[in-house]
Amino acid sequence: MKNPNVDEHGYIYGKFQTGEKTWTIMNGKQFTYVLTGDEKSVLIDTFYGYGDFRAFVETITDKPLMVINTHGHFDHTGGNSFWPKCWMSEFATHECKRAFGPELKAIMDSHAYPDYECGVLSDGDVIELGNHTLEIIKIGAHSDGSIAILDKTERILYTGDELEAGQVLCGNFEKHLASMLKLKEREAEFDYINSAHNGTHLVKSYIDDFIKLDRDMIAGTAEKLESAAGFGWSDGAEGFGGGGDRYRYGKAEVIDFSKKKL
Ligand SMILES: [Zn+2]
User: Fold this and answer.
1) Ligand 1 centroid to 142 CA: how many Å?
2) H helices present in the chain, as ranges
C-alpha cells in the first residue's frame, strides 16, 4: 500500500526528539510539536493536513492527544480535521476552518472530522499532561487570536507566528510590542523559543530584538530594507495582505502591513 506521507519529493514530514518530552515535526520550513506526558500528549498546530498527518503523529505518541492551535490561520489548522476536537483561542474558532483556497478545503473535507468541535483556551489556563505542565499566555498582533504556550516542565516557549526566525507579518506594532513585553516578563521560566516557521530552538534574546524593533516601528525610525524578499517571502507577494515592507533590528524582522489591507 502506498504510504500517504510520501509524495514524489520524498517524505512529507520529518520528526526529531528535541527534548526529553518534546518532539519537533518538520514540513518544509514549518514546524509543529508533540509534547508528551504520563497521562496525555499535546500536539501544537497541524500544518495544512497533507498526507495522513494523524498516523504520523501517532508514531510519536499513543497517549490521548489534545490538539492546540497557536492561532487560526489555515497553515496551522488544516490538519485539525483528523481529530474530533481541537483547542484554541475564542478568536481562532471563527477562522480556523477558513481554508486557503478550494484545494485545501477539499483536503479538509476528505478527513474524518471536517466539522470538528472547537474548545476555547484562555489566558492563564494550565494544562496538565502528567508530570508535564503547560500554561496558555494570550498574545496577538500577527493574529488577534494568537496564544503562546509556556512549557513549564521542559522550559520552552512556543510562539506560533508572533515571534519567528524569518519575519513576523504584522499590522499593529503597539499590539506586538505589548505581546513581546508580556513574554519578556516570563523569560525566567523558559530557556529557548520554538516558533512555527523558518527556524526553531531560538535564543531568548529574539524577544529583546523584537521589543526594540517594535518601538522603532512605532516611532517611525526602524531600518527599512531595500527589498521585502527573504525567508520564503517574495517581494510584492500577493499572499497574506499582498506585499508590505521589510524592517530589521538585530535578529528580528517584520513585514509591515499597517498600510495594507489585511
Ligand atoms: Zn499566521
Assistant:
1) 6
2) 53-57, 74-77, 102-110, 173-184, 205-219
